[in-house]
Amino acid sequence: MLAMVDRVKRNSKRSSKHSRDDAAPTGDARRDRWRKHRVARRAEFVEAALTALHEHGPDLGMDDVAAAAGVTKPVLYRHFDDKADLFLALGQRGTEILLQRLIPAINAELAPVPRIRMALDAFFTVIEEHPNLYRLLARGSFAEKPVDADVVAEDKEIIATALTALLGDYMRMFNMDSGAAEPWAYGIVGMVQNTGEWWLERRSMSRDSLVEYLTQIIWAAIDGLARQQGIVIDPNKPLEENKVIRLARQNESDQQSQIS
């Protein structure tokens, strides 16, 4: 089972004191039980915030979150420093939801085209199910309060870095120049992200149609580059070696993607 990466707020100089204080065991059983309770309670409030987001949209306020959680605002503020802290917690939860769907899809032992299609469908399913969460994080503010963190950009970085390693490993396997892996990865992620933002606002086609169009575009690029090197890959036949992305927690300020 792949280890899930915790949200790292690289663009924010501050992190929640509640998250830091509740993270590590102390050896004091009573205190540790209290800390676990606080962590669980905080997670409940994040889920309540997701419910409020679905109902009120990205303009929701702390009153809306408190109402969804069935508590008063002062209770919320015992678990979150401020609105920005809740925003970051929502970002962490959003990343968790996305990677839980996306990484298994990318790592599926399928032929190239079905694998691409499954990964794209995972991404678009998540933003279809949580459109207001994506809009809130992309906007970078909570209840008209700007937040010093670009969660969407951070997710883009995580995925592009992992995809760079994956593409590079396959290109080396076929004796191709892997120098193209990084710009390819960022190009693919940027295209998918921009298309996702367009689709959320327009909804001019079904998710299945959109996924199929993007699958064709991405495969055409891969197939074209491979053929330039005299390499023909059957799009509907699994490759002999299934390279996978492994995301593992490192420390509070860094993340790494590994291919095995």
Automatic annotation (TrEMBL):
Biased composition (Basic and acidic residues): 18-31
Domain HTH tetR-type: 39-98
Xref: Pfam families: TetR_C_32, TetR_N
GO molecular function, one term: DNA-binding transcription factor activity
Residue numbers spanned by region Disordered: 1-35
UniProt-listed InterPro entries: Homeodomain-like_sf, HTH-type_TetR-like_transc_reg, HTH_TetR, Tet_transcr_reg_TetR-rel_C_sf, TetR_C_32
UniProt keywords, alphabetically: DNA-binding
Coiled coil: none
Protein name: Transcriptional regulator, TetR family
